[in-house]
Amino acid sequence: MTTASSTRQAQQGKRSTAPQPGQIQAGNPHPMNRIWKAARLNLINKWTVYWIPLMILGFIWVINMIIWWIISASVTGSDRQDALDGTQWSGASFYIFVYMLVIGVQAMNMTFGYALGLSLTRREFYLGSTLAFLLLSVSYGVILTVLSYVEEWTNGWGFGGHMFTSIYFGSGEVWQRLFIFTVAMMFFAFVGTVSGTVYMRWRTNGLLVASAISILLIVGAVALITLTQSWHLVGEWFVAVGPHGVVTWMLVPTALSALAGYFILSRATPRG
Amino acid sequence: MTHATDPRSGAVISVRNLTKRFGKVTAVNNVDFDVIPNTITGLLGRNGAGKTTIMQVLTGQEFATSGDVRVFGEAPAENARVLSRISFIKESQRYPDDFQPKHVFESAPWFFENWDADFAAELVKEFRLPLDRRIKKLSRGQLSAVGVIVGLASRAPLTFFDEPYLGLDAVARQLFYDRLLEDYAEHPRTVVLSTHLIDEVSQLLEHVLVIDQGSIIVDEPAEALRGSATTVVGMRGAVESFVEGREILSREGIGGLASVTVGKLSAADRREAAAAGLELSPVSLQQLIVRRTNVTEKEFEIQS
Description:
The structure holds 2 protein chains of 2 kinds. Chain A is mainly alpha-helical.
């Protein structure tokens, strides 16, 4: 420790005894700047947010191509048309929405602790993450919309198949498609976010209670609809509002999740 | 522990009556202390004594149950004006699963306005840290190096290191102490260092806070603490007559030799001891603290 002590002597000579005002005063950070940086914290690893999910999507597309090819090679006439029409019920692109949910969970689960380690406030982190998820949702909305048009222009990738123009997304105007894809992404992102914040705040017990409440609400709704014999009304409602209407209604739980997440996280503490 | 009720003006950190409970457990119990700017303060104590909890409250990661905590004159919780000037490096820091060290060194500068990228790059080289390996795959020592580099290169006006070097070998730890002192000399700032390797850091510390079972039991300048006890060694008869009537902290002996640790000695006492042919040696900071926290030295070391 001789070097250490000699360094100490040197610096003690250099140091002034009276504290300068700047050393004991709080800083003056730019809030928008810090929120934007918090957003970038969620997007820093491009592999996680873009390349890996898109590669998986590409793989699913290849598998679908092979299936469409098998159908068109082995079945003929009206049967073939039937089978390929059936692909409009495809859930092949559903995975990308679940992936978005996982991104929401992981942000609250792990990026949160890291963000506090970098001296961000919970508020800055949550607002930044919200901004990041909105940007991600819009960018995926654009990607999926473009793919849905490519699918149409190539007549279902040359086989009449459906992956991005399935029945759930509809085949409306460009802004309708963009809206449906973007809002669906946002819905899953914020459901993931709110689940992540429940875990951060109340750990496993919180998740158990939250799941129990959700299950009770769903079972209660099912019971209500069944006992009042109104399932046909539910079906009619879905048909009447169409994919666009359903997705518009999804904005309500999306916004509620985002708001709840903010308040739940505001008193949460990351623990190792 | 007597303090004015007002936070001391000029202090970077001022804590009054801080209590933090987790359920029925009281982790920090009615604690008062101040940290003055541009010092290195050691926050020492056994595991579970409350060191980490205090630092988490000071950095806004935990909310105090009661009491008044001021950092840069303001309450730290959810306060960006305070937090933007703080760097908190802790042993238990978690990183996103998909992160590599390069992502840390890319994002950390966004939040620390004094960040020195060249210094960070130099430290990466010195700690031999691989930049593009998943953080999950790093060894314990490499993981600690990530935190140590962020803590040093961020040059935050107030830097906390909470047991920052778990898994670092002796060479890497010495590197950390050397770089900390050098950089602190060039860029004065306030550092709070929590550790159980007391003797290793004792040369760094200017002020010592010892916490035991949630209460501060020592709040003294390191220099005063070091002089607060001395070991007297010599022939049994001479030693016994010298220490008679003094505060005796511990006593050992082999054959005709005796070694007795006593409280503070004056200059006259030292001359008297020299005249009697006795040898005086300082007591290490670790031994002193162990004595005050009523544990055996062995027990203290085992906790690591």
